[in-house]
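User: Fold this; tokens only.

Assistant: Input:
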Amino acid sequence: MNVFWQDFIKQYQSQNECMVKYDAQWPSPCIVDPDNVAKDHWVKWQPISRQTDPSANLHHLGTALEIKIPEIIEHFYCAYYADHLAVNLDGRVMTLLQVWNEEDFVRLQENIIGHVLMKRRLKQPDTIFIGVTDDDEELISIIPSSGEVVFEYVGRTPHQIVANSLQEFIRYLTVA
């Protein structure tokens, strides 16, 4: 999966201008040339590897939730600092969530914990979200026990299996 994800990120970057509105209060190591950015301007970003960061993993998240976080989710969220990725699946616009900076990584983990605890409180199977569809209430999630990628509405059980694996799901995507 890691090589596959690297290839997708490279493809995304080659097909997308990768611009984001600059926010001095929300810095990121992936902003290109941050020293020459004027306030409130659009800036170019590029994915930056997090591989050299020893904290770039979800080990503590798995411990907190008492589950094994699948390696595919580790690669998905921990390989790069990047902005969210706009993609299409059969003409439907979606956003794959990514980590912008370390504060965002902490926030992501807190949101995943909240999501899994909500699923358990509702007596639903655990899922870990990786994105949203064009309907803000519909999540793209992975079932940790099977690796399947599913669509689910917040607070509901998954209603559609989209792919048998994250790698298969990514194969279906095009850059928006």
